[in-house]
Amino acid sequence: MIVDFLPFSAIDFPGLLSAVSFLSGCNLRCPFCHNPELVIGSDFEDKSEEFFYLLKERKNLLDGVVFTGGEPTLDKNLPELILKVKNLGFYVKLDTNGTNPDMLRFLIEKNIIDYIAMDVKCGLEKYRSFLGFKGDLDRILESIKIIKSVKNLKYEFRCTVGSFIEEKDIKEIARVVEGSKKFVIQRYIKKGKELLENDFKELTTYELIEKSKFLKNYVKNLEYRFYEN
Q1: Phi and psi at residue 180, in whole multiples of 5°?
Q2: Which pLDDT tens digit goes with each residue over 58-83?
Q3: Which of 24, 42, 87, 156, CA to CA, is 20 to 30 A from 94?
Q4: Kind and range of the H or E run holding 37
């Protein structure tokens, strides 16, 4: 279910004006997460009806809808929600951590997704110790393979980079996304509302570019996003 939403965004869906819907629950515990209430909370009000009312009122003002979280692919009702959005004439973007390739494959086969943004949060070897992931790491690789294999799908892989990302993380990320059409480096912005207390630091523009430039040799298009997405 949709537990919260942003009525208007000019930055969350590349090239389009969108509304952003938030689904709750996540199978990662990223210490730098800015939406901790969506990760660990459970007592949510269903705002789906209110959200779809908004979309009907703004059909001529908005181009698309973003599904984010939390991790939206964990919600078994996600395909139904997306189909309702598509039936209203909107483009759909999905934000995901890539841990549920079965749902990704289903949505792609149904042809109801227009854009996928998958976070590759660090080197795979750190997913358990740093992010608390308890699943099969091969499922993340499977998601990357699925996304890259669809010719007409618009997508980006992305990583939020702060002091917690090391050189070895960048090299491991480069290996697993090699050949991708688009990779986005996002600047980590410390907001004081994160899942775990930490001493992570923001990087300067120079530090951000220097730390991530290794990726240029592995992806077709490397972009930088200096605002929080």
Answers
A1: -65, 150
A2: 999 999 999 999 999 999 999 999 99
A3: 42
A4: helix 36-40
- Of 53, 50, 86, 40, the C-alpha closest to 67 is 86
The pLDDT tens digits of the residues spanning 36-64 come to 888 876 788 999 999 999 999 999 999 99
The domain that contains 126 carries what CATH number? 3.20.20.70
Report the C-alpha gap between 35 and 12 in whole angstroms: 15
Q: Which domain holds residue 64?
A: 2-225
- The position carrying tokens 């986005």 is 184
Domain total in the chain: 1
φ, ψ of residue 94 to 5 degrees: the values are -115, 125
Helix (H, G, I), strand (E, B) or coil at 40: helix
Task: List the alpha helices (DSSP H) in 76-227.
Answer: 78-87, 101-109, 127-131, 138-149, 167-177, 205-212
Alpha carbon distances (Å) from 53 to 7, 21, 89, 95:
11, 13, 14, 22
Which residues, given as ranges, of the chain have pLDDT below 50? none
- What pTM value is reported for the model? 0.94
Whose tokens are 């078994």? That residue is: 76
